[in-house]
Specification:
The protein contains seven helices and ten strands. By secondary structure, it is α/β, with parallel strands linked by helices. The protein has a single domain (7-205), classed as Spore Coat Polysaccharide Biosynthesis Protein SpsA, Chain A. The strands form two sheets. Strands 1, 4, 5, 6, 7, 8, 9 and 10 form an eight-stranded mixed beta sheet that branches. Strands 2-3 form a two-stranded antiparallel sheet. A hairpin with a 2-residue loop joins strand 2 and strand 3.
Amino acid sequence: MSASTERSGLVLAGGLSTRMGRDKGLLEIAGRPLVVWVLGRIQEIVEETAVATSPANDAAYRAVVPPTSRCVADETPNLGPLGGWRTGLAALQGEYVAVAPCDTPFYAPALGRLLLERAQGHDGAVPRIGKWFEPLHGVYRRERLREAVDRTMAAGLTRPVHTFAHLEVVQVTEPEIRTVDPDLASFWNANTPEELERLRARADLR
């Protein structure tokens, strides 16, 4: 990638998918794997993308991820999103990175643009829906997040929100998010077979 890359995208696909029972990002709606849906949307707002996989599923993702992106297998598997962040961030070059889970096919590029705008001059911008942060949909300054991940893991902590102790992030609240994503469709995911069927039912509406 060019040294002038300013915006990168990281799709997280290394999870265990315990509730679904199958790898979520490889499931299809409307004939396309969920991860391909996510990549297509996030690529509208960034200059490079990577998919953070696990050693167990890396080959399967490489078989479906288009050549406009690349897969990066987690060097420290079974650590959840922090492990994917650590490996994925090291493979990217952008000053800011937009993050998205692999099972959110209706990720709104407008949400990513809003977060990229709000993150300028800060370590990141993170959606807050009601009282809950959505760190896996955030935009972060890449080097600052890498440092925060290392410090968080060194402290024996594993939740993405724990990195906020080491970051200066902007909270982007639900009312502001709804101005660009009225239905909060960016956060619809496929944790269970029932949720997958709901996504399939909505695919022709997106």
